[in-house]
Specification:
mainly alpha, 6 helices, Rod shape-determining protein MreD, transmembrane, transmembrane helix, cell shape, Cell_shape_determining_MreD
Amino acid sequence: MKNMIPFLIAIICFILVILEGTLSLINVSLFADDWMIVSHFMFLFLIYVTIYFEKITTFYAIALSIIFSLIVDIVYTDVIGVYVFAYTLVLYIIRVFMKVLQSNFLIAMLMTVFGVITTDILIFFLYNIIQIHQLSWEFYWHNRLIPSGVWNLIAGLFIYIAFAKRLQKWSFIKFERSD
């Protein structure tokens, strides 16, 4: 079991990448027509991997971020590297924050909000720099950032409930238990 844990985390990331694409195809008629809701399920899971699974000397979340955000870039976007850069940079920043913060529910939710908002803004600015889209800041703020932030916070709560304790247990099994 000890050696299988990183592969289980990778399989969960893969399933969440597929789920992101599947849910993006579903037209959400409950919301306003001009809202653009972007799911970051895999990224949310990797935030919790960073908070609850990682040790000081391991970089599983960063490695998985590079691999699976490259898949997101190849499959779902036109520009390769934007999600790789944004996800990896923000996960590294969260990792640095977690060196001085305690791992609890409140900090996990604050890191979720920080991670999703920072990632989305970073992706927005990168797409504006390379001129993929020409959205105004006001339109983006009102129609994408806030709806996506709320959607991903709700999804983050579900992912937290499903995986936080399990990741702590897997961390204990992988790094502290002597078999």
